[in-house]
């Protein structure tokens, strides 16, 4: 059984005010091409199809085009809702679409939906489990104590009819962790302060767990428990990630292979740094494609007037501008005091803390002299 594992499409998402719709169209074309070349039996989409519960008309149209392209390749599609999706919207017409080999599980109804496919080695059961919360599960298991996400998943999977001698694949969109393994997180993921963590050992009954939620492609403690990651970089915390689709092959029981198929964006999302003058004069060999989505870090020591507009004349997709110089590197720990210690700080030190909190930087020498003069004049009166 060969299938393509993708997740976290976030169709309709904007990054720092820039629409990603063209990037998403481009990635979906690449996925369709991989399907033509590799001829998998199924495509697994592990949640967060859309970026918001009520997607835009254009986002819905793009996903419709993608599903239509998949149907033309005669491939079975297995899809679940993630925490960004509206379960009810995804569920619309799901029974009708099942007849077209499009299996959608948007809302949890008390039991894990099972889709059975077959190959030369026999049956493979795909367990489709959309994003769930403890409160949702509690309503279906009144006799069990369900306080945490871990409790919820344990209750649901214990109630699933899993044959340990058969081949079983779970499709799930949750935050699974493994003791001693640090998961790679991204700024664009929704986090619930650690209360959403689930022990990945709970997935030991499955030959493969096709996961969504984390945007970096990674294992959750074992080779067969995998996050596909998002197909596009959605924040600068992801700029060093290599985006991919996972081609998974299950042969006979216990034989698994996973291959990462690279996905190439129209415009990469990167960071560059240097002085304003240096970046404006740099050639493509130094800074790369000028049309990429960029976080630009300026290292100039002097004040610059309207740097972003100057940079966008050369780098049209500059998204974020930051500064890194001697002023931003000054240690402010001496003035980052709590309310109790603030009483012991001088008026000057208190103003330094206020200035840092408001502006995100520190005063220049000239500004500091002005504040000292003002405070000295107040004391004299």
| CATH class (first level) name of the largest domain | Alpha Beta
**What ranges have pLDDT less than 50 throughout 5 or more consecutive residues?**
none
Q: Gyration radius, to the nearest Å?
A: 26 Å
CATH superfamily of the largest domain: Metallo-dependent phosphatases
Number of domains: 3
**β-strand number:** 19
The number of helical elements comes to: 12
Q: Which term fits the overall shape?
A: globular
Terminus-to-terminus distance: 85 Å
Structural class: alpha/beta
Widest beta sheet: strand line-up: 6-5-4-1-15-16
Enter the CATH topology name of the largest domain: Purple Acid Phosphatase, chain A, domain 2
Beta-strand percentage range: 25-35%
CATH architecture of the largest domain: 4-Layer Sandwich
Can you give the mean pLDDT?
89
Share of helix, binned: 25-40%
Main sheet properties: 6 strands, mixed
Topology:
Blueprint: E1 2-6, E2 14-15, E3 18-19, H1 21-38, E4 42-46, H2 57-72, E5 76-80, H3 87-91, H4 94-98, E6 102-105, E7 113-119, E8 122-129, H5 134-138, H6 149-158, E9 167-173, E10 175-177, E11 197-199, E12 208-212, E13 218-222, E14 225-227, E15 244-250, E16 256-262, E17 269-274, H7 276-281, H8 284-287, E18 293-298, H9 307-312, E19 318-323, H10 339-342, H11 347-359, H12 365-380
Parallel strand pairs: 1-4, 4-5, 5-6, 8-9, 9-12, 10-11, 12-14, 17-18, 18-19
Antiparallel strand pairs: 1-15, 2-3, 7-8, 13-14, 15-16
Helix pairs in contact: 1-2
